[in-house]
Amino acid sequence: AAGVIQSPRHLIKEKRETATLKCYPIPRHDTVYWYQQGPGQDPQFLISFYEKMQSDKGSIPDRFSAQQFSDYHSELNMSSLELGDSALYFCASSLGAGELFFGEGSRLTVL
Amino acid sequence: QQQVKQSPQSLIVQKGGISIINCAYENTAFDYFPWYQQFPGKGPALLIAIRPDVSEKKEGRFTISFNKSAKQFSLHIMDSQPGDSATYFCAASIGDFNKFYFGSGTKLNVKP
What we know:
Order of helices and strands of chain B: EEEEEEEEEEE
Structural class of chain A: mainly beta
Oligomer: heterodimer
Number of strands of chain A: 11
Largest interface: A-B, 24 and 17 residues
């Protein structure tokens, strides 16, 4: 069965650089979520989209932005990267409020 | 502040034993309580979930016990197996939304 696809899986950036993470939800899923998981931490909700509109917002820094495109894939853009942004970024998708399926994550390392 | 408090942080259990992980919450508006299992390098995967209108839910070797008055819920893994070794997160959400507040996680190690 198709799962949530995230790219890239690993990304290394310098401080103050910009990074873009991509997420391709499970086919026919209309809702996408982004979570950030720091080393040894629990996942923290960042933002979600339903039918290409932002549906909820969590602890997402102003330096980050995200959107969901017409094909339902989503991109998380992170600018002015800081050391503390180093984390695993998970995308998850669902059909409406149904079961949430997580991708395998994108590991961002900021040097 | 952590909306959902989870304990213990780590747990070692012998094969065949019972693993018990506990979570507590304060926000009485929470009405959906899932447990997620995460293996290293993988995303969390839904294990089992419960709503506050029932006190217990069992799926195979996994059972959630829910105590609404105490605002606590726990995961019991019966006949624990080495393949169960993973990090377990409890979570809570409000309404029909997947905006979860996760617990801090429990790293379970089942010894052969």
